Amino acid sequence: MATTLAPQQYQACIEACQDCAVSCDACANACLHEQDVQMMARCIELDRDCAKLCYTAVSFMASGSGFAQQVCELCAQICEACAEECEKHADHMDHCRQCAEACRRCAEACRAMMGMSA
Amino acid sequence: MATTLAPQQYQACIEACQDCAVSCDACANACLHEQDVQMMARCIELDRDCAKLCYTAVSFMASGSGFAQQVCELCAQICEACAEECEKHADHMDHCRQCAEACRRCAEACRAMMGMSA
Amino acid sequence: MATTLAPQQYQACIEACQDCAVSCDACANACLHEQDVQMMARCIELDRDCAKLCYTAVSFMASGSGFAQQVCELCAQICEACAEECEKHADHMDHCRQCAEACRRCAEACRAMMGMSA
Amino acid sequence: MATTLAPQQYQACIEACQDCAVSCDACANACLHEQDVQMMARCIELDRDCAKLCYTAVSFMASGSGFAQQVCELCAQICEACAEECEKHADHMDHCRQCAEACRRCAEACRAMMGMSA
């Protein structure tokens, strides 16, 4: 529903980026309240970066910006780095497992979007 | 799906804010390409402000911030101002009609959230 | 220099918010690399919130938004909460001491701006 | 003053991005209130994109993010596109002339920063 006003070809990617932004913000906060926070520092950093780029990507796509693709290309890279880190903790922490999945889906959606809008 | 990691009580409000942010960014862009842009200047300004606050509200809620309520309170005010302006153009412009609806839903969700998390 | 295009009455407040946003982002990162991260969790949270609101406030002021005052009012509150937390660590950590000062200056500039622009 | 807590090597680039973000937000707003807004539509779009990336770049640098360089690389591209458009109106509109200069300085600072931090 949320994205019917945005350019049609970006719908799936907007939703994946919205999901990923929220997952990363929530995962960073959950990491910050784990007992061994120090072990989660790298995860918190990447969650933070990934959330920021995802919100930015949503806004560029929703605005129909001519730079939407380039923002999504960078977004895909940061999503993959964040997924990789979250996956290290996925066995023990459900928030990292869920966040890694959201990051993988988002990276895929960004790469699909880049292919489409040539 | 996107918000399952975020605090449970914020789910509906996060979705309404995501929808509203995207609708406002898209509406501003559509307004900017109308023939009579000058008539849409106030709408573009309010779309711009409303989108920014909505993204900010999503991020505060997703992070479980202690200031989420206060950000949502301000968000509701801006949503209402934006809805009021968009409604003036709703008969002639579908993007303004849809955006006004997204803004009204978001304002309502923000006010409901404020009531809940006392 | 940076703000000469922005509304004249906001110059001082824009600069204080820019300073505070950067200080909070930098302090959060420094906190995250302290040995006892757990002790810094609350500080990291408030730095995160404060940075976000400061960037938002800068953008509202630079855009000449009609909601600039209200954003600055909320910004002042978050700055004060962040300053209070940072001050607890100011004796031992220079980043917290500097960040607390930036937050206090920013809160003051936001309150002064609110008084001015009636 | 504002950036003393941020990584030393980013100081100049942070200041240039702060300046550019504010200039673009202010220029977009000034364009929106020109008599012939339609002629300024492209400028408003690029100002909007450029402001967003500049704020994002500031935050990545201030946080000491490992992706700061890549964000600045994209930022430089958007700054150059925005400068090019603003320069078309620079003779008649002082806000476009000043904004174009801020964009050129920012693009240069971003490229210099990318060279430095190998």
From TrEMBL, chains A, B, C, D:
<dbReference type="InterPro" id="IPR005560">
    <property type="entry name" value="Csp_YhjQ"/>
</dbReference>
<dbReference type="InterPro" id="IPR044543">
    <property type="entry name" value="YHJQ-like"/>
</dbReference>
<dbReference type="Pfam" id="PF03860">
    <property type="entry name" value="Csp"/>
</dbReference>
<protein>
    <submittedName>
        <fullName>Four-helix bundle copper-binding protein</fullName>
    </submittedName>
</protein>
